[in-house]
Amino acid sequence: MARVLIVAEHNGSALNPSTAKCVTCARSFPSDGVDIGVFGAADQAVANAAAMVEGVDKVIQVSADSSAGPVAAVLAPQVAELAAGYSHVFGPSTTFGKDLMPRVAALLGVGQLSDIMAVDGPHQFKRPIYAGNAIVTVTAPEDRPVVATVRTASYQASEGTGSASVETTDANASLPTHSRFVELRSASSDRPDLQTAAKVISGGRALASAENFDILYKLADTLNAAVGASRAAVDAGYVPNELQVGQTGKIIAPDLYVAIGISGAIQHLTGIKDAGTIVAINKDEEAPIFEVADIGLVGDLFKLVPELTAALEQS
Amino acid sequence: MQKIMVCIKRVVDYNVRIRVKPDGSGVATEGVKMSINPFDEIALEEALRIKERGEADEIVAVSIGTSDAQQQLRTALAMGADRAILVEAEGEIEPLSAARIFLDLVQQEQPGLVILGKQAIDDDCNQTGQMLAALWDRPQATFASELSLSDGKATVTREVDAGLEVMEVELPAVITTDLRLNEPRYVKLPDIMKAKKKPLDVRPAAQLDVDLTPQFSVIQTDPPAQREKGIMVSDVAALVNALQEKGLI
Ligand SMILES: Cc1cc2nc3c(=O)[nH]c(=O)nc-3n(C[C@H](O)[C@H](O)[C@H](O)COP(=O)(O)OP(=O)(O)OC[C@H]3O[C@@H](n4cnc5c(N)ncnc54)[C@H](O)[C@@H]3O)c2cc1C
Ligand SMILES: Nc1ncnc2c1ncn2[C@@H]1O[C@H](COP(=O)(O)O)[C@@H](O)[C@H]1O
Hints:
The complex is a heterodimer of chains A (315) and B (249).
Chain A: E1 4-7, H1 18-26, E2 34-39, H2 44-51, E3 58-63, H3 72-83, E4 88-92, H4 95-108, E5 112-116, E6 118-121, E7 124-129, E8 134-139, E9 146-150, E10 165-170, E11 179-185, E12 199-203, H5 213-223, E13 226-229, H6 231-235, E14 256-260, H7 266-269, E15 277-282, H8 289-292, E16 295-298, H9 301-314
Parallel strand pairs in A: 1-2, 1-4, 2-3, 3-10, 4-9, 5-9, 12-13, 12-14, 14-15, 15-16
Antiparallel strand pairs in A: 6-7, 7-8
Chain B: E1 3-7, E2 10-12, E3 19-20, E4 27-28, E5 34-36, H1 38-52, E6 58-65, H2 70-79, E7 83-88, H3 95-109, E8 113-117, H4 128-136, E9 140-150, E10 153-160, E11 163-170, E12 173-177, H5 189-195, E13 200-204, E14 217-222, E15 231-233, H6 236-245
Helix pairs in contact in B: 2-5, 3-4
The structure holds flavin-adenine dinucleotide and adenosine monophosphate.
């Protein structure tokens, strides 16, 4: 029978919500159990949060000397070591998981499946290719572990709470010293997180400057929404890279996505295919974004967005 | 550093709207425009800049694929790579197989740096660089948006979900590129002529002692679910109404 190990994503003090989404994916096929492995320097709070994810049997906290910062070369041997005894090893398809899981798979001598979006059975999965313009159904061999990343936008984190046991073990694998985490620079923000927000307001090249993004931030504030952006807006330096939505940015699934001054290139659309409602504001009625929008409004964003913000403040 | 190896994959051009074959057997790629994977072009551009700064002597462009991939390698040579190697293989090469072939080439060529794209825009796997680094037992710095070299080390800024992460790795190492690392140069006509004289070595994959059997099998290819056709509204008031009806505000 199957047994699934999920690699927790965390920042040292908090569990990333992508972990619980992987659990939902793992529970969509029959197995003997779903365990979470917590690797790297992590507070007790991380393991405790993992233990509270509904449907988890056991949390295994692996401690090692040199695990500061999420360095894949250091984490992979630890994951590969713990993977013995599991039929499936899953991680989120976030930058953390994409960096780590292929390295784990190669250490185990097996291939890896990227971005699982649906499970047909323990060894049959669906995943997107060509920026989501085709979906393939793939079977994996049964005689070796399935290593995969889970497309987090395809799964909801479970709502309920569990009470898994927490075990601590030491890593025995020898860990390399050739890679060193230096620092993480994030534009700190007290806005809702783009990857988990229920509402997202995104801006494109049409915003034309960093200052002009203020009108989007104002709109976002009235809706308690996160702010996202197209690649063109990030490339132009209007907003930091972590706001990019799309094939090479974040794949998100908010209830409401508002695309403002974004043309709707396929690489952008692939990031929002699972949004509940897509609203587009664009001055070009021929813009491809209107082909996927549930609600479209043609016009100049510099007039319409402040108008919308004012209308929402009143209602 | 003496040598940089750059991996160049031939893929359907990013501007092509691909079509799923009606019988579900795959994606129609006959007769569509093919190009260098955009991330690999960025990888090559970065290698060229390193060489132009005097920090590397030679750039070797390598590809795995059918003999058609010679076109993309010729483009790489025209951009400025010094020589190219095509490992000729038919059919789908999974990332683990590609990584095993690249490891073989790495052992022959002994580069100080291998630069790959972070993902091929056909399979969207985002695996090969990480797998190569694991098999080679060397560092990886993925999703690079800035790279500098000194004292046998690379300092790499990586685009991660939380922002920008800086890491330091000892060479030799594997780097994979993100879009903002650089803007690749355009190829000039005289360079295309010059590239014809540069060495392009073609080797059958069967000559290498590498297991290329695919592990996964694709049993069906479908188009993605289409979203339902939406509505157009004429003004902000109508938009607010529509959002209210959906219970979104
Ligand atoms: C390998 C690869 C990966 C990529 N990955 C991504 C990705 O992850 N995410 C991503 O977003 N892109 C990605 N791209 C880029 C993508 O192809 C597009 O270039 C990009 O999405 C365009 O951004 P945009 O819509 O903001 O700009 P544009 O395409 O320039 O669109 C601007 C839009 O604004 C409208 N507009 C202008 N002025 C106004 C106004 N005053 N009021 C209202 N509307 C106005 C215009 O009509 C136009 O439709 C990728 C490209 C490649 C090659
Ligand atoms: N067949 C191939 N030929 C050349 N390079 C490849 C090949 N397959 C993968 N790569 C390299 O590995 C990167 C990541 O590919 P992938 O893991 O398939 O998304 C690509 O951007 C290329 O640099």
